[in-house]
Specification:
Strand order of the largest sheet: 1-2-3-4-5-6-7-10-11-12-13-14
Distance between the termini: 39 Å
Order of helices and strands: HEEEEEEEEEEEEEE
Number of strands: 14
Structural class: mainly beta
Number of helices: 1
Length: about 250
């Protein structure tokens, strides 16, 4: 735990700008309905909030997502995800970043999963282009609180435990604006560790309905290279959402 606190302190040094340097927050809230496959075969409802603000040298953002689903009256999905990050712009192409994420997923092998890290990012495409793309990577610490599980060989109960591992993060964020009303996004995120590697990819297509309201369809894939016994490697989620933008 001392290791992760040290990493979080280093990330905070990057993430906290001097007062008065930041602009106003803007963002969006979304209400979604989805269909899931993998560890849960269910339909669900979800809400999410994303916010960000930017100045000449700082970009700050956070995201909060909650999904809940049932099948024939029984709860089959209950997931809460939080992600926060800050970029310190170094020049026109490079930036330093700090990141903290936390996930609670009742229908998975872990009670919670936390990651803290920092590194360097590269803005591949200029913001003046219809396309924008950035990639980033760096070291971090991942802490998993694992549930009690049953192993296959030998057949025995594996007690609940906490795993703290040195990790590497790599991420890609791509967007393309077709016109004033339609845009496409594709975000990929990978956290590598000796124990297991998690890869997530989310594609979105958003169409503006009014000045503040949009319709969005998304497809998300989450993959775990070494899931615990009884759990699937890959989960998918297809969602339709109504999105409300504010503060822009």
């Amino acid at each position: 735990m001392r290791i992760i606190l040290a990493v979080m302190a280093a990330a905070s040094a990057i993430a906290l700008p001097a007062s008065g340097e930041m602009g106003r927050w803007s963002g969006e809230g979304a209400f979604s309905a989805g269909l899931n496959t993998g560890n849960t075969q269910t339909s669900d409802l979800g809400i999410s909030v994303q916010m960000e603000r930017e100045s000449q040298i700082w970009r700050n953002r956070f995201e909060l997502t909650a999904d809940y689903g049932t099948t024939e009256g029984a709860e089959t999905k209950n997931r809460l995800y939080f992600d926060a990050g800050a970029d310190r712009i170094l020049n026109d192409d490079l930036f330093a970043f700090g990141r903290l994420s936390h996930e609670i997923n009742e229908f998975s092998a872990f009670e919670s999963r936390t990651f803290a890290g920092s590194g360097i990012g590269w803005l591949v495409f200029d913001e003046e282009s219809p396309a924008n793309w950035s990639i980033e990577g760096g070291p971090g610490i991942r802490v998993d609180r694992l549930r009690e599980t049953l192993s296959e060989t030998p057949l025995e109960i594996v007690p609940a435990q906490t795993q703290e591992t040195v990790s590497l993060i790599a991420a890609s964020k791509f967007g393309y604006t077709f016109n004033d009303a339609v845009k496409f996004g594709n975000d990929t995120n990978m956290i590598y560790a000796d124990t297991s590697t998690q890869v997530g990819n989310k594609s979105t297509l958003t169409a503006l309905l009014t000045k503040s309201l949009s319709a969005r369809v998304s497809f998300e894939v989450r993959h775990d290279s070494d899931p615990k016994t009884g759990f699937e490697e890959t989960d998918t989620a297809t969602r339709m959402s109504i999105v409300y933008a504010f503060g822009g």
